[in-house]
Specification:
Layout: H1 13-19, H2 21-48, H3 69-107, H4 115-147, H5 151-168, H6 172-182, H7 184-190, H8 196-219, H9 221-224, H10 229-244, H11 248-268
Helix pairs in contact: 2-3, 3-4, 3-10, 4-8, 5-8, 5-11, 6-8, 10-11
Length: 270
């Protein structure tokens, strides 16, 4: 639980000035990491990562390549960086709220964990999801290589992914996870960490809720193209809108209808 903070005293002006920088430092770190992630994705999309640029999506023929340890870890890095760039903007309000609370607690003389450690825990949850995506990408390539699927068959698989993502938007699990992501104060009030190690764990806990909210939308990267910059940006904006705009739950439902329509079109229209 959050600790009650006594009124600030005049005996700690230096401490107050120092901890006032926490929120600015956290915001600067968020902007820096997000900017670097999107710059990396833009460079990859422009062809600076030929070793993995061939995963063009399920619609059409993906370029196949041989997997080894180097390709595996480079692909994992690509996914983790992409998840950081796409998900940090939506998580920024929660991380900044965490920083604001820690600043108030430190001004009051209470021990308080680091918001940056909380953010690192959040990214760790998405890094774990990225590992699953790497195995998914690897498996999809094996399917294409073994079955020699036609573009029409690939489009139908893509349609099925769209249908899954669309139907998920209306499930109780989606509503629960989205509600959690839209009300960070309630989560922090019930899970406030007492030390740095706990801050990482609580950040990862929050990240798992976000994974539960967004994983089907992230699966659509396999359809539109893992390195399709505009497609990734569109999905990131959707995630941000669901979490940040008023009535974001309706944004999720409208997106769900759109996903279902796109899936039906890919499956049934020649």
């Amino acid at each position: 639980m959050l600790q009650e903070s006594p009124a600030p005293t005049k005996q700690r002006p230096l401490l107050a000035r120092l901890v006032a920088h926490d929120r600015a430092l956290t915001l600067a770190a968020l902007v820096l990491v997000t900017t670097l992630a999107w710059a990396y994705l833009a460079a990859m999309a422009a062809g600076m990562g030929d070793f993995m640029s061939g995963m063009d999506g399920l619609i059409g023929y993906p370029v196949l390549y041989l997997w080894d340890a180097r390709i595996f870890f480079l692909t994992l890095a690509m996914w983790a960086i992409m998840m950081a760039g796409m998900m940090l903007p939506g998580a920024a309000p929660t991380i900044l709220l965490f920083a604001a609370i820690t600043t108030r607690q430190r001004e009051a003389g209470n021990a308080s964990p680091s918001a940056l450690v909380f953010g690192a825990g959040y990214l760790a949850a998405w890094a774990a999801f990225s590992l699953l995506c790497v195995f998914g990408q690897w498996g999809l390539q094996e399917v294409f290589a073994a079955q020699l699927l036609s573009p029409r068959e690939g489009a139908r698989i893509g349609g099925a992914v769209f249908l899954l993502a669309g139907l998920y938007q209306f499930t109780p699990l989606k509503r629960r996870c989205l509600s959690h992501c839209r009300t960070p104060l309630q989560f922090l009030a019930g899970h406030w960490p007492r030390n740095t190690a706990a801050a990482f764990r609580v950040g990862a806990h929050h990240g798992l809720y976000c994974v539960g909210c967004c994983w089907p939308a992230m699966a659509l990267l396999f359809v539109g193209g893992v390195m399709n910059f505009l497609w990734a940006a569109a999905l990131a904006l959707l995630v941000l809108a669901e979490k940040a705009v008023p009535r974001g739950e309706w944004v999720a439902r409208v997106a769900g209808v759109g996903f279902i329509a796109a899936g039906a079109w890919l499956i049934f229209v020649p």
